[in-house]
Specification:
heterodimer; A: mainly alpha; Rna Polymerase Sigma Factor, Chain: A; globular; B: Immunoglobulin-like; 3 domains; 39% helix
Chain lengths: 192, 239
């Protein structure tokens, strides 16, 4: 996994081939970064697998269309991450405007009476509940929580990936953990 | 919330980021034994910490269907991009046309006896690794921008590959031609083969429609246990 600020030589070659229209090269590139990006997609959508897949797929198509604009001054993950984040923000604006989406997709407060939550005895259900809480954090907080708590990256790796200083990552992590803790405490009865 | 609960609340927040000392844990446990509200918050935070500890990065791997859908959309995207190349002005078109004709005449003179696709090594569309023991389902995909009638797709097998069938006649064929129509959008022509020996073999396919021929090859690199299947596409050429 490349977590350097700049693109790795292998990725660089794959990007060049993808620019020439080699679909297989683009797919290989995506494969080595897809788990981190999908983890983020899962968290920003509050664990909605279907929506996360839609957003991820759109982001990948946008990445393929714009591959010639990728300058290689950051890692491919980081670039994909930005595209996904922008796509999601656009989606959320549209969803809020059109009011087409169910509430849980808009990151509203968790509904105490939702049956899946009331029956949350299985790990997957609790994980879904946790993702819904993570989805209520700011995008920047979700980013750092996803990379460190869900993808087990170190602070140094996150700094390289997001082009932030190590101090800034530590500070954001501290703030994000604090906010997540407050949300868990506020929704403590849902974890029973 | 009384003062003691406030102190415990602060300790609970600390418990999310660091291991508590035995004294802190003892004080937390004592308070939680008599305060159901703090006990519930403590349990929720412990559950959260446990969830994150047990979560592995690979748990968030995207499903295979996402890769398959992406591949289909990329092929469509490539086909659309090919159809959207900017139009040239009339003067440029004429100049370009004359240059291409001259070039083709010169090249044709030298290359006629050679294989018609010489110089085109094909574009790799996808590569997957499958189990060598199972019959292989091959799907040749065509994206059509309008309905196409009377399409013929010829499939030629290298030595070392056979059509998979109960019918002995079909198994012994080295070449098979499919005739049919293609609808607008994605069309798949599937067939099943078996790889009989190790090594690199090719399935050569050629679709003929609208006075054009379009070649797709499938390269099979058969090893002891696996087969690497590579789909290649060549430029469409006049018949």
């Amino acid at each position: 996994m490349n977590t350097q600020g700049n693109i790795s030589p292998v990725d660089k070659e794959l990007v060049e081939r993808a620019r020439r229209g080699e679909i297989a090269a683009f797919e290989t590139l995506v494969r080595s970064h897809e788990t981190k990006v999908f983890s983020f997609a899962l968290n920003i959508t509050g664990g909605d697998h279907e929506l996360a897949q839609d957003i991820m797929q759109d982001a990948l198509i946008h990445a393929y269309r714009g591959i010639s604009s990728f300058r290689g001054d950051c890692s491919f993950s980081s670039w994909l991450w930005r595209i996904l984040k922008n796509d999601f923000l656009r989606y959320r604006e549209h969803a809020a405007f059109s009011r087409e989406e169910p509430d849980n997709r808009k990151g509203n407060a968790v509904d105490d009476h939702e049956p899946a939550v009331e029956l949350a005895i299985m790990r997957q259900e609790r994980l879904l509940l946790l993702r819904r809480l993570v989805a209520q954090l700011s995008i920047e907080d979700q980013e750092v929580i996803t990379l460190i708590e869900f993808q087990e990256l170190s602070v140094d790796e996150v700094a390289a990936l997001t082009a932030m200083s190590i101090e800034a990552v530590k500070s954001r992590l501290h703030r994000a953990r604090g906010r997540l803790t407050e949300l868990v405490k506020k929704n403590k009865n849902l974890f029973l | 919330m009384d003062d003691r609960c406030r102190q415990i609340d602060a300790l609970l927040t600390e418990a999310m980021t660091r291991e508590l000392s035995p004294e802190e844990r003892c004080s937390l446990d004592q308070h939680c034994a008599s305060c159901p509200d703090c006990a519930a918050a403590y349990r929720a935070l412990l559950t959260t910490r446990e969830l994150l500890r047990n979560h592995r990065p690979e748990d968030d791997a995207p499903p295979t269907i996402l890769r398959e859908n992406l591949h289909r959309r990329l092929v469509e995207e490539q086909a659309q991009q090919a159809g959207k190349r900017p139009a040239l002005g009339l003067r440029w078109k004429l100049a370009f046309g004359v240059s291409v004709c001259m070039l083709l005449t010169i090249l044709g003179y030298f290359l006629m006896p050679a294989f018609p696709d010489k110089g085109d090594e094909g574009t790799i569309l996808s590569r997957t690794t499958v189990d060598a023991k199972e019959p292989l389902t091959i799907k040749i995909t065509y994206t059509a921008d309008r309905p196409l009638t009377d399409v013929a797709v010829t499939i030629r097998l290298d030595e070392g590959i056979s059509f998979y069938s109960d019918d002995e006649k079909l198994r012994s064929l080295r070449e098979y031609t499919w005739h049919g129509d293609l609808r607008t959008g994605i069309n798949e022509i599937p067939f099943v083969v078996t790889v009989e020996r190790m090594g690199t073999h090719r399935i050569r396919t050629e679709a003929s429609y609208d006075d054009y021929r379009h070649r797709h090859d499938v390269e099979l690199q058969a090893e002891q246990r696996t087969v690497i299947v590579t789909y290649l596409s060549y430029k469409k050429r006049p018949l």
